[in-house]
Amino acid sequence: MPRLATAADLPAVLDLIRQVVPLMNAAGNWQWTAEYPNEEVFRRDIAQGHLWVAELDGQVAAVAALTHNDQDAEYAQADWDAAEPALVTHRLAVHPQAQGHGLAAALLTQAEVLARQQSLRVLRVDTNSENQATQRLFPKLGYRYVGEITLAFRPGLRFFCYEKWLELSKQAGN
């Protein structure tokens, strides 16, 4: 069950990222580097109450930042309504030794829970065009591909965008 990250989780989160980034890079996925995501980014996520972790055997084994419409202007390149408020998943990572245990899916399910609590109808996520694992995962969880974007701060990379619309339960009397 995912939980909000605390400052005490920061060393484990940074270790997780140090394990994941070289494997991503070796597979040709340069979405992340030794410079990003970094400690400052995760400290800010924790301070804003956006960083969630999932544990396996009592250890932090997966992480995701669940934010609100935290998307650069370039995201308007995707086939979605950028004005529609959304819960956006960023910095989703699973420790290599914990992959295959459903932790990424658990964090994305937590995004759905938060969206419903906040009466948001839309979930969004993007991934590097070279990240085959997430490109398989997102559609399995009901996300639809909505286009490809480029980001000025990550020149040379392409990102695939995905969106999921939620059915909000009707309030009594509506």
UniProtKB/TrEMBL annotation:
Gene3D superfamilies: 3.40.630.30
Matches recorded under CDD domains: NAT_SF
InterPro entries: Acyl_CoA_acyltransferase (IPR016181), Bact_Acetyltransf (IPR050832), GNAT_dom (IPR000182)
Coiled coil stretches, renumbered: none
Keywords annotated in UniProt: Acyltransferase, Transferase
Domain called N-acetyltransferase: residue spans: 1-167
Pfam family, one: Acetyltransf_1
Molecular functions (GO terms): acyltransferase activity, transferring groups other than amino-acyl groups
Name the record gives this protein: GNAT family N-acetyltransferase
